[in-house]
Amino acid sequence: MHKPVVETKNSSFLENGFSGFPEAGSEAEIMMFRKLQERLYRQFEHIFPNKLAPKTVVVIPSLTMDEEILSKINGINHYEERMLCLLMLLRMPRTNVIYLTSQTIDPVIIDYYLHMLPGMTGYHALRRLTLLSCHDSSSKSLTCKILERPRLMKRIQDLISQDDDTHMACFNVTAYERTLATRLQIPIFGCDPDLYELGSKSNSRKIFRECGLIIPPGFEDLSSEEDIINSLSQLKKQHPEIRKAVVKVNDGFSGEGNAIFSYSGIENAADTKQWISENIRKKLKMVAGEISYDMFLNKFGQMGGIVEAFIDGERKESPSVQCRITPTGVCEVLSTHDQELGGEGGQVYIGAQFPASDEYAVEIGHMGKKVSDALLEKGVLGRFAIDFISVKENDEWRHYAIEINLRKGGTTHPFLMLQFLTDGIYNADDGKYYISKGSLVRYYFTSDNLKSDKYIGLTPHDLIDIAMMNDLHFDGTIQEGVMFHLIGALSQYGKLGVVCVGSTPQRAREFYAKIIEVLANECQ
Question: Exposed, middle or buried by CB within 10 Å (0-12, 13-18, 19+), for 53?
């Protein structure tokens, strides 16, 4: 991540409104940020649990990652809508939410979320919600866009009451979010960006070793084509049976920074390394199809990365564990999921079943707790996830730890929606989620990638109308049903997100099947 630079458009206003702040990325700014972060302890102890306490949450749903990789994801700006689940915070009658986006969100989408608020009228909630837009559809991250707009930052400051306890909620926290926090003088409930590298692919492998977890055979801290070739060669010599390997940049997203190398054809090669060197261009397939070999290699050189064995198995799953380290130093296992992956070599996140399978949910939860304890010792704060590849061998599951994501992810917003709507809790001791009504359990299936060219042209208004006419909604009386997200991406990209909550995993899948059937009929 490059050092943040705050552009000084309207420079006189910037000087008047934000004078006295240290230079972006400077040691003085880092010290100021850490001082701001100290406020979180009191907030978490006394303000967060009190539903009637005055507070303000500034939501910055910026995906502050490599622009070139993110630009390959259709409708990436609309991914900022995934954190609209935090509008459910408005169920607390003295909580204010300030939500920023690159582009204006259609009011019908906001109304859709507010109508789900339990025990709160839309009118009351709307009075405490402020939506702000940069009116900028460029590929820059949202946080960078905000930093370029001092008048917008001043508006945020003016909206924050001096009597409120305020914090920022971000998708991920980088040096840019740190600069924004110091400009606004509010803490972030998230990891210090100086620790962000702990979640790289290379450092994930090191932390897993520290925790005694199994990892795929491989090599980390690589930075060049020569490193990749040498590692692929060594991997094949050490493990002659492997058919494929995965090459990953350290800071990829949703598998888009990964590539699959196939060893097919190497069997008769006299020199393994020479064969790989001669064939790497045609044998290395990028998960993001629009990224060329040279582009991938350039990113690998900039970010560094790893090479590891592609894990095979007749029965293979991709579970994940979501954890949180609180400002008071408590490590929590929040949830487990079985991820559904697609794309080249099954590297792209498509959706997930919650909770993970009864066969191993508790076991991987324990592994997640080990990693959490290790990260706590290193100073990590906030939500993160640990991904696994699990293979069943001789009636036993073998779990390979794959990566740590020190940020929110594709399973964060579905779980938050479930939690906000049902007031329930995940019990890591038995791997089940219990709603507030007692011993009743709930499951969901979620996807960020329900898409079809036939959906293109459906506006948010059309989707809501279709949903209401076909009983596709969340029913608070039985605490089951359907919730949509990524609604803004539908008309242009034919892409939609869904969360389907049911009393059994099968019922959750039935809701999902119904959505597909209804949309197919409506789009004939």
Answer: middle
Query: What is the pLDDT, as a whole number, of residue 439?
Result: 79
| φ, ψ at 340 (rounded to 5°) | -105, 125
CA-closest candidate to residue 498, choices 385, 418, 432: 418
Identity of the amino acid at 165: D
What are 394's two structure tokens?
Answer: 């001789």
Tell me the residue type at 336. T
Neighbours of 468 (CB within 10 A): 10
307: how many CB neighbours lie within 10 A of its CB?
26
Cα–Cα nearest to 479, from 417, 432, 427, 435? 435
Can you list the domains of the chain with their CATH numbers? Answer: 11-189 (no CATH), 198-215+314-436 (3.30.470.20), 217-309 (no CATH), 442-524 (3.30.310)
Query: In the prediction, which pLDDT does 2 show?
Result: 41
pLDDT, one tens digit per residue, over 288-317 is 777 889 999 998 999 999 999 999 988 999
Query: Nearest 5°: phi and psi at 300?
Result: -65, -40
Any bridge partners for residue 354, and if so which?
A: 444
Average pLDDT over residues 151-168: 88
Confidence (pTM): 0.90
How many helices (H) does the chain have, and how many strands (E)? 18, 20
Rounded-to-10 torsion of CA 83, 89, 94, 98? 0
Cα–Cα dist 178/184, whole Å: 10
Q: What is 175-205 written as a DSSP string? A: HHHHHHHHHHT--BSS--GGGGGGGSHHHHH
Give the single-character DSSP code of 66: -
